[in-house]
Design brief:
heterodimer; A: mainly beta; 11 strands; 0% helix; 50% strand; globular; B: mainly beta
């Protein structure tokens, strides 16, 4: 069984640029969540996708957007990058019928904004 | 508010020592509670969980009991190993209309020396 995979693992961008991060959910998992983990902090909820639609969002501005595809994979897009966007971005998937907490995380994409 | 507070690290122990990492939460009602672990270079993994008051979650020698009286969910292990060195995150579920998310503490780094 393949776990959650994310790409790229590391990337460097400059202020004002745009970035797309990708996530393949674990087999059979239909819900995908994205979290931002700043250095030395706990993960912060960005949003969640279910059936290709965003069904929940945290306290993040609209320049953070996402997609979910029919195969349940997902993308996180961030426009107009700011220095504070530097963080580890974690994707997590969960199977049908599971409540919050039954999350399976990828290893993350570490974004550095210069 | 709704938050999770855990003790600051790093916690430095010798092998076979007793471990306690404190975690308290604030919430409306009785949310499910979790401990996640992040080993170096890896994503978060669910360590254990408890879904109602007085439940005890356990895994790999770790235990935590859901205490509604003290709104706590302290993590304990009787005898730590070097391989337990990691960052430990306490989290609680937060239910919103149509979706659920996790609220994490800031994490506690555990360093176990031989």
């Amino acid at each position: 069984e393949t776990g959650v995979t994310q790409s790229p693992t590391h990337l460097i961008k400059t202020r004002g640029q745009q970035v797309t991060l990708r996530c393949s959910s674990q087999s059979g998992h239909n819900t995908v969540s994205w979290y931002q983990q700043a250095l030395g902090q706990g993960p912060q909820f960005i949003f969640q996708y279910y059936r290709e639609e965003e069904n929940g969002r945290g306290n993040f501005p609209p320049r953070f957007s996402g997609l979910q595809f029919p195969n349940y994979s997902s993308e996180l897009n961030v426009n107009a990058l700011e220095l504070d966007d530097s963080a580890l971005y974690l994707c997590a998937s969960s199977p049908p019928g599971q409540g919050a907490g039954e999350l399976f995380f990828g290893e993350g994409s570490r974004l550095t904004v210069l | 508010g709704n938050s999770v507070t855990q003790m600051e690290g790093p916690v430095t122990l010798s092998e076979e020592a007793f471990l306690t990492i404190n975690c308290t939460y604030t919430a409306t009602g009785y949310p499910s509670l979790f401990w996640y672990v992040q080993y170096p270079g890896e994503g978060l993994q669910l360590l254990l969980k408890a879904t109602k008051a007085d439940d005890k979650g356990s895994n790999k020698g770790f235990e935590a009991t859901y205490r509604k009286e003290t709104t706590s969910f302290h993590l304990e292990k009787g005898s730590v190993q070097v391989s337990d060195s990691a960052v430990y995150f306490c989290a609680r579920a937060r239910m919103n209309t149509g979706f659920q998310k996790l609220v994490f503490g800031t994490g506690t780094r555990l360093l176990v020396s031989p």
